[in-house]
Structure formats: structure tokens, C-alpha cells
Design goal:
about 100 residues; mainly alpha
Length: about 100
């Protein structure tokens, strides 16, 4: 259950990171509300996951998932260019996250 919660929290990290960019310095209401809501839920999920998972592992997985999904979303929407090198390095992050799960 902790791992599932951690994955969802990582997904929410990508949501709040994307919303933060779209909030234009908190001048846009809807993205700002999405940012604060997703941030609170993401942090709460991370905190609950850390009850059973080591801090370092939980944090690395949370950040890894959030970072990868944020970049993938930006590339999919055209906000960031797609590059083979980015895909390779994102794959390395995903491999690291899976590796952390396997050794836990």
C-alpha cells in the first residue's frame, strides 16, 4: 500500500509542478488552486508512505516519478522539445526507480 501511495504522490508532484508553471507566479486562479491542492495531497501521500518506507528511498522514488512525468507531459504538449538524449536519461531515472523498488 505504501508503494502505491508513493506512486500516486509522485504523479501528483508532476501535477503541481506543471500547475506551478501555468500559474504565472500565482496570477492565474485555476492553476494556482490546482498547484496548492496537488502539493498538499502529494506531500501528505509522501509523508504517509514514509511511515513504512525509508526516507531516502521514498524521496528518490517520489522525485523520480514526478520529474519524469513532468518532462514527458511537457514533451507531449510541445512545451519542451523531444530529444533522444532526454528519452535515454528519463529511461535511466525510471530504471533507477524500479531498481529501488526491487531492492526494497
Amino acid at each position: 500500500m505504501s508503494w502505491m501511495l508513493l506512486v500516486v504522490s509522485g504523479l501528483l508532484e508532476a501535477v503541481w509542478a506543471t500547475a506551478l508553471g501555468k500559474s504565472e507566479g500565482f496570477t492565474q486562479l485555476t492553476p494556482s488552486v490546482v498547484f496548492f491542492t496537488a502539493l498538499a495531497a502529494s506531500m501528505a501521500g509522501l509523508a504517509f508512505a514514509m511511515r513504512e518506507l525509508p526516507v531516502g528511498t521514498a524521496y528518490a522514488v517520489w522525485v523520480g516519478i514526478g520529474a519524469v512525468l513532468t518532462v514527458v507531459y511537457a514533451m507531449a504538449t510541445g512545451a519542451e522539445p523531444v530529444a533522444l538524449a532526454k528519452i535515454v536519461f528519463l529511461t535511466l531515472i525510471v530504471t533507477g526507480v524500479v531498481g529501488l523498488k526491487l531492492v526494497h
